[in-house]
Each structure stands twice: as structure tokens, then as C-alpha cells.
């Protein structure tokens, strides 16, 4: 049975979807939910689900990213995960951290990569006049939001949409896509998943 550590910064809705999927005959179980934000809403949800939690507050390290990531690695490795799932973890990670977990780390991003890497993805899709938007799950590499795409889900962009409207339409697709990709990933299957 594979062990998955899930990294969050906020409410943890994708974390909950992942954790709820890892039951029964699923080949993995969540072993840790870690946040860089003390009191992040997802920590209480994880604790309620019986999952171990940890916090490494990036603010305590100032601009010393190496020290922050060293503490992060120590906290993660204490739980001996086989895989990492970034689920709304709002820190850009250095190559040193990424290399430590190379080939074992996934991220979900709220755009149809390679479009709209980084922030404000929904507004950027609307501003560009795109007919559709969505989300992508990709393997984490040193390039921001640039690793191999392992899954995508699409939704229409409707006339008059605000970014909040679009985000609300994309989020349920994230909750379907990420568990589907993770299940394949932990079994060594890198073939992409595409949801309509």
C-alpha cells in the first residue's frame, strides 16, 4: 500500500477529494496533510478524517527558502510517503526540493496547461476570450506548472462569466480529475486522463 503526503495552504477541498478517494481497494492511503499556513482550514478537515497533520510556517523562515524547505522535507519524510500531492500548496518550490521527490510528486493547476501558468488563471482565460477553461494535473518539475500533463478536465466559459463563476464550475472537475490521476500515478501508469 503506497503512502501519500498531501500539501495544502488553505481550505483543502482537493485534499478532501483525494483522501476520500483513497479507501477500499485504492492502492494508496493518505499518511500526512501538511500546510505552510498555521490554522489552514484543511488541517482540521484532515484531523477529522483521522489523517496525521503538520505545519511548517514559511513566514518563520523569512526569505530563507532553503531552511524552509529543509524543515518541510524533515516533516514530510518523518511520515515516509511514497508520493506527494500538492493540493493548493501556494509556495514555489526550489529544484532541490523537487529533486528530492523527483518522479513522485503531482500538482493540480486551475487552467488548461500550458495556458496560464501561475496565478489568476480564470480571469486570464476570460480576458483572452477562451471558449473553454478547466484544470490540469501534472508531474512536478523544476519548471513552474511545466511538468508532463497527466490529466485535464474542461468546462465551457459562458458569456458574462466572472472569474468566480468560472472557478466554481472548474472546482468540481478538479475533485474528479485529481483522484483519477493519482490512482493511476501510484500504480505507475503515466497515461493521461481526460474528462469532458
Blueprint (SSEs and pairs):
Blueprint: E1 2-8, H1 13-21, E2 28-35, H2 41-48, E3 53-55, H3 65-77, E4 83-86, H4 95-100, E5 105-109, H5 121-127, E6 132-139, E7 149-156, H6 163-186, E8 193-195
Keywords:
196 residues; alpha/beta; Rossmann fold; eight-stranded mixed beta sheet; 8 strands; 34% helix; 23% strand; globular; Formyl_transf_N_sf; phosphoribosylglycinamide formyltransferase activity; GART; purine biosynthesis; Phosphoribosylglycinamide formyltransferase
Structural features, described:
The chain contains six helices and eight strands. By secondary structure, it is α/β, with parallel strands linked by helices. The chain has one domain: Rossmann fold, CATH 3.40.50.170. An eight-stranded mixed sheet has the order 3-2-1-4-5-6-7-8, covered by helices on one side. Helix 2 (41-48) links the parallel strand 2 and strand 3 (53-55). The longest helix has 24 residues, at 163-186. It is globular and about 50 Å long. The mean pLDDT is 97. (6R)-10-formyltetrahydrofolate binds at residues 65, 90-93, 107. Catalyzes the transfer of a formyl group from 10-formyltetrahydrofolate to 5-phospho-ribosyl-glycinamide (GAR), producing 5-phospho-ribosyl-N-formylglycinamide (FGAR) and tetrahydrofolate. InterPro entries: Formyl_transf_N (IPR002376), Formyl_transf_N_sf (IPR036477), GART (IPR004607), GART_AS (IPR001555). The record marks 145 as: Raises pKa of active site His.
Amino acid at each position: 500500500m503506497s503512502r501519500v503526503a498531501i500539501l495544502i495552504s488553505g481550505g483543502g477541498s482537493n485534499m478532501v477529494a483525494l483522501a476520500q478517494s483513497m479507501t477500499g481497494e485504492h492502492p494508496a492511503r493518505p499518511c500526512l496533510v501538511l500546510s505552510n499556513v498555521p490554522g489552514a482550514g484543511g488541517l482540521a478537515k484532515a484531523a477529522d478524517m483521522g489523517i496525521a497533520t503538520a505545519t511548517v510556517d514559511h513566514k518563520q523562515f523569512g526569505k530563507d527558502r532553503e531552511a524552509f524547505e529543509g524543515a518541510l522535507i524533515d516533516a514530510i519524510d518523518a511520515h515516509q510517503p511514497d508520493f506527494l500531492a500538492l493540493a493548493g500548496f501556494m509556495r514555489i518550490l526550489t529544484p532541490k526540493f523537487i529533486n528530492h521527490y523527483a518522479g513522485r510528486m503531482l500538482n493540480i493547476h486551475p487552467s488548461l496547461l500550458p495556458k496560464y501558468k501561475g496565478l489568476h488563471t480564470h480571469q486570464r482565460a476570460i480576458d483572452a476570450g477562451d471558449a473553454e477553461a478547466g484544470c490540469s494535473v501534472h508531474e512536478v518539475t523544476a519548471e513552474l506548472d511545466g511538468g508532463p500533463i497527466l490529466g485535464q478536465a474542461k468546462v465551457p466559459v459562458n458569456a458574462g462569466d466572472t472569474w468566480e463563476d468560472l472557478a466554481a464550475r472548474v472546482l468540481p472537475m478538479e475533485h474528479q480529475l485529481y483522484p483519477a490521476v493519482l490512482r493511476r500515478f501510484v500504480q505507475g501508469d503515466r497515461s493521461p486522463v481526460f474528462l469532458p
